[in-house]
Design goal:
alpha/beta, binds fructose -6-phosphate, 616 residues, 8-stranded antiparallel sheet
């Protein structure tokens, strides 16, 4: 997590850095800082809290931050509490070297001991201050150039980093390096931008170089970019990518919060996921990354899907779809667990990794493990050019556009849409899926954007329901079959942004324990579309009612029974079971949003969270 940004060129650096930091805040927002360099040295400001508080502090100081080189950081604390001292940038003991860092230095304690034994003092509790002083120590001890000292220091580091360092004696240069955590360089005309995410500089340039693990770049205002391998100083040829993001996509527009904007964008984002992949009239599905690996998907004996959080919930829906429509056994794994339990993987396995950001450290580690065992790794990612998308053997983008709200919404429905396409495509390849079912699902998939638009109309009734329940402290979410992961997702959304305790369960599991929790102080959200398990879920609702639980039910428009039983109902359009999560999740996203809104929470920046989890 953490967002880093840098600028080197001829413009005033401060506005570029501060505005860039605001766009990177989704990566962490417990403290922030900037450093602007000029011919007489540098000014450095940092503070606990959000970027606007940093701005206020700088404005209060009445000092004009003038200089054409700058770095900035917005933090999600790993080592040391969130306070002014632990905020970045960090400086070396001589005050000469200034560093920002995203990642974790796992062996910082042993490096710290060496530094302390050699007369260094450390002001903060961070691993970053240890790292910048290690560079200074190695530089002075060996009479190295900064570049050599960084290279040598980084070979000592165990962990993950993306860093940017400036030496006050050479403010026309900046050195950046990467291992694990992302960093990109924007190439302008005689200027360089550096950031954890290029969305922070796209108004200036769309030409981007993504650093790969083990690479460092030496940037100088008057020279061409110099890209090197850290380990052997081998010179590399940079590959320039053209970004296709539009500035409007990263603005809130008429919405108060990105989360709401992103919920409302879903009819369009699903169209974008389907575009060029589903031809409804001829019922043809074309998925580039699959066509070229057709035999692998036909012949595989099993698929393992690896992901975290919301993407893991989408994976559970993928399990249901791939098993039902393509008859391939699927296992779904938490990326963080997969890596540490010696999983059985061989070269005939397909591992699908799903990630919105494409930067989740746990998922990247799982991917690397799968590749090291020779498995074929297929990625489903949203962020174009992200680490995961660049590391897989083949894959697809979900094309949901930038997701900025920390609570994932449109990325989830885009992932499900992609998984439906995948399951239908493989089912068709294997001639396993019945033609009528295939044609019906293709037809219905084409109508999903319209059905989601209809589902969004429940917002007003959700506002009323939220007013009734916003002070309740415990929620249970129940679903069955393909809607069980939707229950998990509904509960996750609620707890993430409104801090209300919520759990998701398969409805039938209630009687095996969770039913003990039911009384008049618990709200139970039941997902009850009309499908095969409907009669069973009616039974589960009766059991809750008998114990005085309050019931909010998500039902279909023509439902009769649950409509009468539940305390409150939210109606969504009818659709085949396989596609139902795409509509049943909409009211759950709105419910979480509305509850957090009434409780006055900062919806886009929930406490303790960050959008992109780049630490393990
Ligand atoms: C929840 C949420 C997280 C992410 C998880 C994985 O709203 O956003 O649970 O889903 O951190 O992130 P990605 O999909 O970027 O790998």
């Amino acid at each position: 997590m953490c967002g880093i940004i840098g600028y080197l060129g001829n413009r005033d650096a401060y506005p570029i850095i501060i505005n860039g930091l605001k766009k990177l805040e989704y990566r962490g927002y417990d403290s922030s800082g900037v450093s602007i360099f000029h011919k007489d040295g540098y000014n450095l400001y940092k503070t606990k809290g959000r970027v606007y508080e940093l701005e206020k502090k700088i404005n209060r100081s009445n000092i004009q931050l003038k200089g054409t080189t700058g770095i900035g950081h917005t933090r999600w604390a790993t080592h040391g509490v969130a306070d002014d001292i632990n905020a970045h940038p960090h400086i070396s003991n001589s005050n000469n070297l200034v560093m920002i860092h995203n990642g974790i230095v796992d062996n910082y304690n042993s490096i710290k001991i060496i530094l302390l034994n050699n007369g260094f003092t450390l002001r903060s509790n961070t691993d970053t201050e240890v790292l910048v002083n290690l560079v200074e120590y190695i530089k002075n001890e060996n009479k190295f150039s900064l570049e050599e000292a960084i290279r040598c220091s980084l070979t000592e580091v165990v962990g993950a980093y993306s860093i940017a360092i400036v030496d006050r004696d050479d403010p026309d240069s900046m050195i950046i390096a990467k291992l694990g955590s992302p960093i990109a360089i924007g190439i302008g005309d005689g200027e360089f931008f550096v950031a954890s995410d290029p969305i922070s500089f796209i108004q200036y340039t769309k030409n981007v170089i993504y650093l790969e693990d083990g690479e460092m770049a030496i940037l100088n205002k008057y020279k061409d970019l110099d890209l090197r391998k850290i380990i052997n100083n081998y010179k590399l040829n940079p590959v320039i990518n053209k970004l296709k993001i539009d500035l409007k996509e990263i603005e809130k527009g008429k919405y108060k919060y990105f989360m709401l904007k992103e919920i409302y964008e879903q009819p369009q984002t699903i169209l974008n996921t389907l575009r060029g992949r589903l031809l409804v009239s001829s019922k043809v599905i074309y998925i580039d990354g699959i066509e070229s690996n057709k035999e692998k998907f036909i012949n595989t004996k099993c698929i393992t899907i690896v992901a975290c959080g919301t993407s893991w919930h989408a994976s559970l829906i993928g399990e249901y779809l791939l098993e039902k429509l393509a008859r391939i056994p699927v296992e779904v794994e938490y990326a963080s667990e997969f890596r540490y339990r010696d999983p059985i993987i061989n070269k005939n396995n397909i591992i699908i990794v799903i990630s919105q950001s494409g930067e989740t450290a746990d998922t990247i580690s799982a991917l690397k493990l799968a590749k090291s065992k020779g498995a074929f790794v297929f990625g489903i990612c949203n962020v174009v050019g992200s680490t995961i998308s660049r590391s897989v053997d083949a894959g697809v983008y979900t094309h949901a556009g930038p997701e900025i709200g920390v609570a994932s919404t449109k990325a989830f429905t885009a992932q499900i849409t992609m998984l439906i396409l995948l399951a239908l495509k493989i089912g068709k390849y294997k001639s396993i899926i019945n033609d009528n079912i295939y044609n019906k699902l293709c037809e219905e998939l084409g109508s999903i954007p319209e059905k989601i638009s209809t589902a969004l109309k429940v917002h007003d009734s959700i506002k009323k329901i939220s007013k009734i329940f916003h002070s309740m402290n415990n929620f249970l979410y129940l679903g069955r079959g393909i809607n069980f992961p939707v229950a998990l997702e509904g509960a996750l959304k609620l707890k993430e942004i409104s801090y209300i305790h919520a759990e998701g369960f398969p409805a039938a599991e209630m009687k095996h324990g969770p039913i003990a929790l039911i009384d008049q102080k618990i709200v139970v959200v039941v997902i009850a579309p009309l499908n095969e398990s409907y009669p069973k879920i009616v039974g589960n609702i009766q059991e809750i009612k008998a114990r005085n639980g309050k019931i909010i039910a998500i039902i279909n428009e023509n439902d009769v029974e649950v409509n009468m039983l539940a305390d409150h109902v939210i109606k969504v359009p009818n659709i085949s079971e396989e596609l139902s999560p795409l509509v049943t999740v909409i009211p759950l996203q709105l419910l979480a949003y509305q509850m957090a809104y009434i409780r006055g929470e900062n919806i886009d920046k929930p406490r303790n969270l960050a959008k992109s989890v780049t630490v393990e």
